[in-house]
Write a structure and sequence with these properties.
- It is built from 8 helices and 12 strands.
- It is of the alpha+beta class.
- Strands 6-8-7-5-9-10-11 form a 7-stranded mixed sheet, with helices on both faces. A 5-stranded mixed sheet has the order 4-3-1-2-12, sandwiched between helices.
- The radius of gyration is 20 Å and the shape is elongated.
């Protein structure tokens, strides 16, 4: 039996014994899965171009292990927030110098626990819908170009008081059903208005109250990563002044989540992509 097949069989056995929600496999293992059956969903993770680092710089086994373990954990957290993963994962790591199996529960991550403390937002349909929409925008852009936007979720009355319209609110007066972020049929409308300056303001229930909104929060009190612009600073600041959570999509395709004025999640969908295997 080949080594990779033996590792997959072991991963499946562990997953079934602990009732894992998902098995994560690197794409180099997909052909080895033939003949191995399981009812547990299998997700494939493409390798990143940054793996070239370990071909150029030898003797970095320890660093390689840390990087690949961290990437697997990030995939699990991103999948959980998107709703594609529901609990503990069993992941196979394919390094240049080693192969290993990791068991990880994304619900134990700082990001998920922090969001759960915020009125259970991480389990809300509204937050999951925003994360899915943000991931699509980050990966696909709009009309052939990358776009940046932000979604401010929850405590909408306070957020509206601390902001103003840059242009007429395109959602004002429309039926609440047509403004629900949880209804995927509305996403084309949201994607279209994501190209406008300003942010989306969304209620806890998932109703889009406004877009093209300018945040008046004082950003001098928050600290964000160097190189990030006004959208990130204002979004972080509004979460410091209100009970809202901000999901910000950069033109570079990176998604960041802010709560209480601090960044708690950073996701690079281009490097964390996955696909479900039948």
């Amino acid at each position: 039996m080949q080594t990779k097949q033996a590792i997959i069989r072991s991963a499946v056995d562990i997953a079934e014994r602990i009732h894992a929600s998902t098995i994560l496999l690197p794409d180099s293992y997909t052909s080895e899965r033939i003949g191995i059956e399981t009812e547990i969903p299998v997700v494939v993770m493409p390798r990143q171009a940054s793996d070239m680092l370990y071909r150029i710089i030898p003797n970095h086994v320890e660093k390689e292990e840390v990087v690949l373990h961290e990437r697997t954990r990030k995939v699990a957290v991103a999948g959980y927030l998107e709703g594609a993963i529901s609990g503990t994962i069993v992941g196979v790591i394919d390094g240049l110098h080693f192969d290993s199996i990791i068991v990880y529960d994304p619900r134990e991550s700082y990001a998920v626990k922090s969001l759960q403390e915020h009125k259970g937002l991480v389990n809300s349909d509204a937050f999951r819908a925003v994360m899915k929409l943000a991931l699509e925008l980050a990966l696909e852009g709009r009309e052939g170009r990358h776009i940046g936007t932000a979604f401010i979720i929850g405590d909408e009355r306070s957020v509206l008081r601390a902001s103003h319209q840059l242009l007429l609110n395109p959602f004002k007066g429309h039926d609440p059903h047509d403004r629900m972020i949880t209804d995927r049929d509305n996403w084309e409308t949201f994607k279209e208005f994501a190209q406008l300056d300003g942010v989306f303001v969304i209620s806890d229930e998932g109703t889009v109250c406004a877009s093209g909104r300018y945040l008046d929060a004082d950003a001098r009190s928050v600290r964000i990563q160097q190189g990030l612009g006004g959208r990130h600073a204002a979004s972080a600041a509004i979460t410091a002044e209100t009970e809202a959570v901000a999901v910000v999509v950069s033109e570079s395709g990176v998604i960041r989540v802010y709560q209480d004025g601090e960044q708690i999640i950073e996701i690079e969908p281009g490097g964390l992509g996955w696909m479900m295997l039948p």
